[in-house]
Design brief:
The chain is mainly alpha-helical. The chain is 66% helix and 0% strand. It contains 13 helices and no strands. The two termini are 29 Å apart.
């Protein structure tokens, strides 16, 4: 792990994340979200409140799941923070509440089981994440990107229960673009996520990947505004150099499973 780079990214996140969130609140498509929330409040709900809710759920029952209303709010957050696709909200609403609970429970359980039984003989984390994604993607309106948004809640919730859980970083456009600047159009496949996001982010602390995702999102937003400052260019150069030089320990195991997009 490159601790110095990670510290620099997290510092950048702390300096810029709330500013970009406020910008979405001010200039975004909507002024008000579910339960009368502003986007700042919705973001706080997604990053903090919902993880606490899931932690309490796990503490009380031993399992994790999402309610349909929670999944709908997550989709609101996703569409406000990234590209808007009108059909996705309707598809999410078309899911039966019991199906949302069942499929999200199954997805989270894959990660819970791996976290509890982790050993040298355990399956590599990318394969485990792919299995969890498969369960979440059985819901209407949930593709690989939304599946990772759902799974991103598990790490913080399980760590509140003193389990050393890995983060599953959200598959956002901005993070994909910052990690793969010459890739071209994103196809939003599970294979892209595993090979080009999750495996590249393995250079960071597995318990910090959610915050690193937010830092990379801020970096890409900064790039889009205009010519980056020298300090931002230096940070980008170090990020891409570190990723390019890092050994890929996960991909062989992923390829053996012949993951299809």
């Amino acid at each position: 792990m490159n601790a110095r780079l990670q510290d620099s990214l997290l510092e950048f996140r702390n300096q810029h994340y709330s500013k970009f969130v406020k910008d979405i609140e001010k200039n975004g498509r909507k002024n008000e979200y579910s339960d009368g929330m502003s986007f700042t409040e919705l973001d706080e709900w997604r990053t903090t409140t919902l993880s606490k809710t899931l932690h309490q759920r796990y503490k009380d029952t031993g399992i994790l799941w999402l309610e349909k209303t929670e999944l709908a709010k997550l989709m609101e957050w996703k569409l406000a923070r990234g590209k808007f696709r009108a059909t996705l909200e309707k598809l999410i609403q078309s899911n039966d509440p019991d199906s949302v609970k069942s499929f999200t429970d199954a997805a989270f359980q894959v990660l819970v089981d791996w976290t509890k039984s982790r050993s040298d003989a355990s399956e590599p984390f990318p394969i485990v994440v792919r299995k969890a994604m498969d369960h979440a993607c059985k819901l209407r309106g949930v593709g690989p990107a939304t599946a990772t948004l759902i799974l991103s809640l598990s790490g913080p919730a399980l760590r509140m229960s003193d389990l050393g859980a890995h983060d599953v970083p959200f598959f956002s456009d901005e993070v994909f673009e910052i990690l793969n600047p010459s890739y071209g159009k994103i196809k939003y496949t599970a294979k892209e996520y595993i090979d080009l996001v999750l495996s590249k982010m393995a250079v960071f602390d597995a318990a910090k990947l959610q915050n690193v995702e937010e830092a990379l999102w801020c970096l890409r937003k900064t790039e889009k505004i205009g010519k980056p400052s020298k300090s931002v260019e230096k940070l980008l150069d170090e990020l891409r150099r570190t990723i390019a030089l890092a050994p890929s320990e996960e991909k062989p195991s992923v390829k053996r499973r012949k993951i299809q997009s």
